[in-house]
């Protein structure tokens, strides 16, 4: 049985995620109260379903503290469980609600006859969902298009869930730091290929840019130091029952240095036998 739990902030893309899973043969349930999840799973197992996707929102707040234990119980029964937490920054969420002209689900949480502000509703929702962050793969959709989000979810669900997933994510500081990052490393101190007219239109995925960066002594030192830091602390995160760890690598525009270093680190962790306990993904937020 494959169970995918989609949760996160309203307006962050939960419907996009659920529609994708429905299109890939998952039995999907939207806005299920969290306390009904065990009964739903039991019923669908009896009916012969093998792929279930459930969207759970903040309106079932009283049960969120119980969800991590429910997830552990499912896994002890041999179920493959993935929890995906979608988020976005406040400005993006406010803009999305303004464009759709929809009311936030928690807008009348405190008063019967008067809506709370949209900003207050978003803050309340973040507080309620906090218990799920530590057991989820977090995706910041602030700058993502729907197709990009679908691709990232497909990548996540292709992984086995019995090993920790380490994600290396490049980004550009001028576009903002990703909200889903556990660690952020700044590589703007390295020589910038942007100032070479021939290299400027290329990216860290292109060989000329790679050759340029490989020729810089500090590039190798930076990669070595980041690898050493991550290697040292990964076991502690695994002991804390973390399933996912996101390491963000940032340069100015997110096109050259961060892309190259994220690729280099992902390659080391994916092929080095000392890191075999982890699964590795790489994303390039600005290139996407």
Automatic annotation (TrEMBL):
GTP binds at residues 57-60. InterPro entries: P-loop_NTPase, RapZ-like, RapZ-like_N, RapZ_C. Residues 164-287 form the RapZ C-terminal domain. Gene3D superfamilies: P-loop containing nucleotide triphosphate hydrolases. It comes from the Bacteria. GO terms for molecular function: ATP binding; GTP binding. Residues 1-157 form the RapZ-like N-terminal domain. ATP binds at residues 8-15. This is RNase adapter protein RapZ.
